[in-house]
Write a structure and sequence with these properties.
six-stranded parallel sheet, single chain, alpha/beta, Rossmann fold, globular
């Protein structure tokens, strides 16, 4: 059998089209959705990510306000900037690009963001609300994966899901999202014993290790008809790869994501969706 490719580029286009309509509706109500981006230092990869997000905003009609800060900025100065963005009524979302320089505390920085403007879904309040099934703003990559399941009508109820990641950005929020759909979720990580035993029994495998020198999900680790979501991206032998070799996995899986072109485009699309969600909530407007 050969499974179906989950095309993140195609699904992201559908999400962006919905976001563009929502931007137009909000503008008709007198609200111009706006995202503030904060980039600390001159990390080339981070700068590229921010530019891509700003370009995506422009495509759907979301304004952006760019804040580029020196690499040696103090925590106090960064907190002051975030506080000013929290108070600015024209701004509906705040994106602080991670990682931050060593002198800055990631938790303190994220905690400084107003939960209403936390379009990354990482503030302690929004993380807690997610665990209680009450979150309006959820981490973008996990939210994008749930959108992929919905797009392909992949039913999660009662399914055995092995999730190979336990990070605050991916594994933990995705765990709660999967539970909310009544999946049975096993959270695996670097200390998990007998990982292959878990993956071979799974109906769905979601993997986000991102280091081919340590881990590759191979066809012998999965059963026929499994759904494989590969979130990882790294450079291996001169090319971009995930945790799987798509051409091999798709011969055994019912659905699988490629790398690149799978989960990646969904992360940006859900950032846009979260921004218009925040704009509607802040202005007490119903959401479509």
């Amino acid at each position: 059998m050969v499974g179906t490719k989950i095309d993140g580029i195609e699904i992201a286009k559908a999400v962006k089209a919905r976001v563009k309509k929502e931007v137009e509706r909000l503008k008709s109500k007198g609200v111009q959705p706006c995202l503030a981006t904060v980039l600390v230092g001159d990390n080339l990869a981070s700068a590229t990510y921010v530019r891509n997000k700003q370009k995506a905003c422009e495509e759907v009609g979301i304004l952006t306000k760019d804040h580029k800060l020196e690499a040696d900025i103090s925590q106090h100065e960064l907190n002051q900037l975030i506080d000013s963005l929290n108070k600015d009524k024209s701004i509906h979302g705040i994106l602080v690009q991670l990682p931050l320089p060593d002198q800055l505390d990631e938790f303190e920085t994220i905690s400084q963001i107003s939960p209403q403007k936390d379009i990354d879904g990482l503030t302690p309040q929004n993380v807690g609300l997610l665990a209680m099934k009450k979150a309006e703003l959820v981490a973008c990559t996990p939210l994008g994966i749930m959108e992929m399941f919905d797009y392909h009508k992949i039913d999660l109820e009662g399914k055995n899901v092995v999730l190979i990641n336990r990070s605050n950005l991916i594994g933990k929020p995705l765990y709660h999202l999967l539970l909310s759909k009544n999946a049975t979720v096993i959270s695996c990580h670097s200390k998990t014993m007998n990982l292959k035993q878990h993956t071979q029994a799974a109906d769905i495998v979601i993997t986000a290790v991102g280091d081919r020198s340590k881990f590759t999900l191979t066809p012998d680790m999965i059963k026929d008809g499994v759904v494989v979501i590969d979130i990882a991206i790294s450079r291996h032998n001169g090319k971009l790869v995930g945790d799987t070799d798509f051409e091999k996995i798709i011969e055994k899986a019912s659905y699988a994501t490629p790398v690149p072109g799978g989960v990646g485009p969904m992360t940006v699309a859900m950032l846009l969706k979260n921004t218009v969600t925040a704009a509607a909530l802040i202005n007490n407007l119903a959401r479509n």
